[in-house]
Amino acid sequence: MLREATGIRKIYLRAGRTDLRKGIYSLQAIIQMETGISPLEEGTMFLFCGKRPDRIKILVFEGDG
């Protein structure tokens, strides 16, 4: 659960649909393969849209595991 968004410096939105059943490791792999960006960079938020327009999944590394 995201505690607060004050430390977020960059936000990336993945274009297109993502299977929101994917877990953390699969989403990390998508980020690394498609962008070359490390998903473990603090202050970076990744947004994934699903098939339904009212559903999103957010991936943020907060640095504390």
UniProtKB/TrEMBL annotation:
<protein>
    <submittedName>
        <fullName>IS66 family insertion sequence element accessory protein TnpB</fullName>
    </submittedName>
</protein>
<dbReference type="Pfam" id="PF05717">
    <property type="entry name" value="TnpB_IS66"/>
</dbReference>
<dbReference type="InterPro" id="IPR008878">
    <property type="entry name" value="Transposase_IS66_Orf2"/>
</dbReference>
